[in-house]
Amino acid sequence: MDIFIGRQPIFDRNLKVVGYELLYRNGNVSSYNCDDGDRATENLLYNVSSMGLRLLCCNKSAFINFTQKTLVNKLPRLLDKDYLIVEILEDVDLNESVIESCKMMRKEGYRFAVDDYVYERDIMPIIDYIDIIKVDFLQNDYLNIKRIIDKYKKKHKKILAEKIETRDDLKQALELGYDYFQGYFFCRPDTLKGHDVYLNEVKIIELFSELYKEEVNFDRIEKLIRYDAGMVYKLLKYVNSSYFGFAQEISSVRQAISLLGKEEMKKWVTFVGLGGDGKGSEDDERAKLGMIRGKFCENLCASIEPSQMESAFLVGIFSTIDVLLGVEMKDVIHDLPLEKDIKEALLGTNNFLGTILNVVLQYEKMQDYTSEYNKLITYNSSITEKTEEDIAVMFLKSLQWTQNIF
């Protein structure tokens, strides 16, 4: 499934890019008309989580618009505070709920900007939490443009001139002392195309049903998620969001579910369930391949080091995630809270888990896996070496297991 995000650069006084405003797009077009701001923000967050904030903003700041509802629900916490600038839209009512949310997120390290600011707007209730004021150059006359910078520079705020459409606009903003600049004079927003992992809609419905039962069967929840590379990927991204602040590394799906708990799992299923709207047979086949590899890795590991079966399964199922997303493996796993051994295996390191994956990949390609298998058995001298027939049976069981699930 293709996903799209609009991106417009923001420049400093030396006309160097310091960040990008990210905008929701529902296709490969440079604009988007939508009356539902909440939905647009939620869709943008979904797309950003799929493509990766760090990659989208090239390690610079990412400016994203948030509505009243999304601020009160603290949705900015789903993204990395080190890159995110939370833009408070011009129609947000700065009531007690919004102020409290901003105050809480500010304490956690999030940065804020006021969007489309005009001189008449009262932002004093949140001024202590604001880092950047984005001044609308189309809606303010010269006198107000000057008044704004005179007023807020004294409060040590950075001032961004937005909707800069001509060279004269830029010259005026520079002369008045504005810090940052954005607008069509530099370039219209380009649209970035990424690829989202396809999520099985039936499984999403099953998860909804299971989580809203009075007695939740977490074994059932784990089974529904564990055998779907797309779901595992999105679950780990969610667990690793700043919203939770979990510091520990993950070695199993069950561990991730336990960390979240029932109520947060409901939110996660809602989040991923609302985001996707397409199907893809190619993704389906790649997901199947990942599952075959996951089960094959698990079976192989069970015969040598049973304590690492779950980690081996994750290595196998994630071995196709770079192809599913169309992103290099190192970039896919950078922000995932996977154990170091799992990450290293996926990046090609010949540790125990990496060697298991090598055996599986070589078997899959009908290559000689003997050398890699001989490395494996050195990890446990007490095991009985498996024959070629034993390995073939493991593969066939993995294949049958996957066919039973799909």
Low-confidence stretches: 28-33, 276-282
Number of helices: 18
How far apart lie the N and C ends?
A: 19 Å
What is the global morphology?
elongated
- Side by side, the strands of the main sheet go 8-7-6-5-4-3-2-1-9
Class based on secondary structure composition and strand pairing: alpha/beta
Radius of gyration: 25 Å
Strand percent estimate:
5-15%
Q: How does the major sheet shape up?
A: 9 strands, mixed
Mean pLDDT: 82
Could you give the order of the helices and strands? EEHHEHEHEEHEHEEHHHHHHHHHHHH
User: What is the subunit organization of this protein?
Assistant: single chain
The helix content is: 40-55%
- How many E strands? 9
